[in-house]
Write a structure and sequence with these properties.
This is Amidohydrolase family protein. The protein is an alpha/beta fold. It has a single domain, classed as Alpha-Beta Barrel (TIM Barrel). 39% of the residues lie in helices and 11% in strands.
Length: 303
């Protein structure tokens, strides 16, 4: 186990107001270390401003509303959304409208049901389930003729009208570009590309095109914390990404909450200190973990 760095006033000042857009607290059919209420209390250790809780399998707005009495007494605001996987009917305007109308702040493109994800985990690695077979089916943004489907167009219009965040989920690069191009044309402005070098493996030229549309590029603490055995990349890789894309287009989230992994706040403490020690300016770190994330969640206007 890695020793958490000394929690200095300087480090806490950098982390103050962090917004985590990728928290995998429970409930979930996958093993989780804590629930959404626990996540709120964990976030208070660094005075988090907000947490977006994500499930691959269900609408987390329902969770947040069901836990409302407890969350009202918890220190960090928690928000939910819906991922468009087969468990909610895939690219489903009805599921999207339900999540939005009940206060959802995010619509995730297909993740575990995306062809790219299915191919990446065809041997069953990386996504253990405590619930057995979930009978997931592949979900596509295209219709039978290869065009972006009418349901995808409607989903993206609903997101645009609500002014909330859209992510590309685990779509491949070509599909994600089509997804974001249609979204941009409809007026979606809060857009996020997840971990480009994990599962989705998006090419640099595709990333440049998406950034030009206003898409933010996400990197996750889970990939860079040594106690997360699944990946374990060196901090230099994250530093290179930040310098290539720029902190103004970059978002850093936890992607944590899984059983056996560090708590999100412990990962923020560790990885942020590593970034500072690697020469990334404190103001740039705050741009990526506080301001860009707050904009995407609808807590601030564009930085």
């Amino acid at each position: 186990m890695v020793t958490t760095p000394e929690v200095t006033p300087a480090l806490l000042e950098v982390l103050d107001g962090t917004v985590d857009l990728h928290c995998h607290s429970g409930p979930s059919p996958f093993p989780r270390r804590f629930d959404h209420v626990d996540a709120s209390h964990d976030g208070a250790r660094i005075n988090m401003r907000g947490i977006l809780v994500k499930s691959h399998h269900h609408n987390t707005v329902m969770d947040v509303l069901a836990m409302k009495k407890l969350l009202d007494q918890a220190p960090t605001p928690v928000f939910g959304g819906v991922a468009l996987n087969s468990e909610v009917g895939g690219i489903n305007p009805s599921a999207t409208a339900l999540a939005i109308n009940m206060g959802g702040r995010c619509v995730w493109g297909p993740t575990v049901s995306a062809k790219q994800h299915i191919c990446a985990h065809s041997h069953g690695d990386g996504f253990p389930s405590a619930a057995g077979e979930l009978y997931e089916k592949e979900v596509s943004i295209y219709d039978g003729s290869g065009d972006v489907s009418e349901d995808t167009h409607l989903v993206l219009q609903l997101v645009a009208d609500a002014g909330i965040m859209l992510t590309g989920g685990h779509l491949d690069g070509a599909a994600m570009k089509d997804f974001f191009q249609v979204a941009h044309a409809k007026g979606v402005r809060r857009m996020l590309l997840h971990h480009p070098d994990y599962i989705v493996n998006v090419a640099g030229t595709d990333i440049d095109e998406m950034v030009a549309l206003g898409v933010f590029v996400e990197h996750d603490l889970a990939m860079y914390h040594p106690d997360v055995a699944a990946v374990g990349w060196p901090i230099s890789q994250l530093v290179d990404w930040i310098r290539k894309v720029g902190p103004e287009h970059t978002v850093i989230n936890s992607d944590l909450g899984q059983e056996g992994n560090p708590l999100p706040v412990d990962a923020y403490l560790y990885v942020v200190q590593q970034l500072l020690d690697s020469g990334i300016a404190a103001a740039d770190v705050r741009q990526m973990i506080c301001h860009n994330t707050a904009y995407l969640l609808g807590l601030e206007e564009k930085p």
